[in-house]
Predict the 3D structure of the following.
Amino acid sequence: MATPTHDVTAAAAADDPAVGLRAVRALRELAERLEVLQVASARRRGWSWQQIADALGVTRQAAHKKHAHGRKDD
């Protein structure tokens, strides 16, 4: 069941570790999905792997390894 983002961020600060850790997991999963979508968008717009890596704060190799799987333009 999806939880609205504002509920998840509030839960991440909960005193109950079980609630807080579940919220951290949900936020991590959301961040991963957003990264995939934004990297794909950047590549469609002609961004280089170096530009994407710089924006993400990782190396070009790390960005490529994580996101290039099966893409024809890579």
